[in-house]
Fold this sequence. Notes:
By secondary structure, the protein is of the alpha/beta class. It is built from 7 helices and 15 strands. The longest helix is centred in the N-terminal third of the chain and has 13 residues, at 33-45. The two termini are 28 Å apart.
Amino acid sequence: RIAAGSAAMPRAPKRNGRGPLYIVEHMEEGLEEWCRLEYTHMCEVVPADRLLFLRWPSGQDPATLCAPGASSPRTAAMGLRDLRPAMMGDEGAQAVEDAPAMPSWDRICLLDMDAEDELDPSDVVNFDAFVFGGILGNVHEHEDGTYGSDDRTRELRDLGFVHRRHLGPLQMTTDTAVLACNLVLEESKTLAEIQWIDSPEIADPDAAAPERREGGAEEGGMSDCVCMEGFRYVARRGRDGEWEPILPRGMRELLIRDANNDILDQL
């Protein structure tokens, strides 16, 4: 809600050597299962006090994203469009009721595929917060073999960010972008030093069971494999020694279960 009165906004405290604030602008209707899994993964990567979800859907309890007894991430009903005037120190701007503590506008950075410069470990001292939102969109392949998307980040880009960085040429799920950003900023890895896997095939771990081999996937039922065409993930070694994408817990099963229900159009 927008409240009349002073535009003074609580400022985020000095970092004192701690990591940056990760701001996720929620851009979906409600909180679908795939989105909840991604947000839960973010809570495992970033400490709760440094993770802020904006435009948080009404009636959703952020505590459900965390392990029992763990601190919940910060949330706010408003978005950056509401918060921007006060963050910029605009005279006469309306104060935002229940606004979260935020850095000044010139100390935040938007993760944007269209940015000229890539994220670098040195950026950890250049900015106090990094914004994620709409990075993925619906991926499609161009005739030349490259990939594009619906560019949902434009909604945030149009707010006029002073600083923007990209994470490479391919699309990522938002939790992958948060993980990659964390590796760069807090483990001092360049993007070139991160192990990636592009367009991976997500296999059903139960597909090799005898009953699945004999009967195959039933029509309209689960697929044995889903190809994440055009997606880039951070990779790790699997039990078989091969590289595999780092996925939120439960995401592999959801992708396999709902592959025939256009779940890839929702991610």
